[in-house]
Prior knowledge:
This protein has helices at residues 34-44, 49-56, 60-80, 127-142, 154-163, 173-200, 210-213, 217-226, 229-233, 241-253, 255-270, 275-290, 295-306, 308-317, 322-337, 344-355, and strands at residues 10-13, 17-20, 92-101, 105-112, 117-123, 147-150, 168-171. The protein is an alpha/beta fold.
Amino acid sequence: MMFLEADAPRVRCRQHGVVVAHVPWAAHNAGHTHSFDQQVAWLVTRTSKTAATELMRVAWRTVGAIIARVWSDAEGRAVAEGRGDGLDGLRRIGIDEISYRRGFKYLTVIVDHDTATLVWAGEGRDRATLGRFFDLVGPERCAQITHISADGAGYIAEEVALRCPDAVCGVDPFHVVKWANEAVGRVRIDAWNDARALARTEPKPLPGWARRTQSLPGRDRARGLKDSRFALWKNPENLTVTQTAKLQWIATTDPRLYRAYLLKEGLRLIFTMPAHQATEALDRWLSWARRCRIPAFIDLAATITTYKTRILASIEHQLSNGLVESVNTKIRLLTRIAFGFHSANALIALAMLSLGRHRPTLPGRP
Length: 366
């Protein structure tokens, strides 16, 4: 182990008062050298904060401060060297939000589809948060954005229409199918409640071995519907043998729930069609959903009618938030590995270091 000692005199600054003079091996107000900061940042992007604190012998909050400092220094260095702020050349972006802590704590996440990198993240999930991103981009660079993928959040559409009026904004197919899955879930719960209500009117089940030979329609249906969620949600090609049998049982015993499943599958298949076929197919699906006499899908048809133009734009231009969802999954993994974050700034800095354009390297390595 080697110890290096050097004088760090205090000087009087006209703007900041009495401060410690700048030294080339550490950042301002930092208690560690640049190499130490780089080492900690590299460790945290690959292991937990707990392991990093134990190995480097620093406090938990110190790690968060180091992450934020390393990211800020990397951004400042890139701007000073003329490499820009990472927001130049944006053409196709994806917008989504992610929950990073209990109590409705969210981040808004922006991903560049062309480079597959995280370009910006900010605390909150409202129009003001998204507006901060577009303020950084500026009017000239906003005009260069051609395609935007997002979910159906109204504030995103409003802000995009204001800042990037010429950009094609599509609704992510994953979220549309998710709406259909939620509608199927509501129909399944209604069917289960109906079966439970019927079971309450049936005689009490016989004890012991006799129960196995006793047929009680209400209880049998409720028991069968209880474990049917994954059979109804999964794509047909991914069903197990047991789930396929469960789906066949639903088709026989509950035609209404099975019709809801077919509506969901019909909507999902539209996103696999060419654009010229998808338009006609979506119109037929909307007509079917409006006449199905299932309230959850009648409501879904009204929602999809509202977003019809943006849904068809997603199909035509092949816009999807799949890449953004992948980035969100990696951010959740970073949060779990670090055992949570008390500060959104530390999580944003770590996400940008891990998934952005400034990946930390081990000091002293080429």
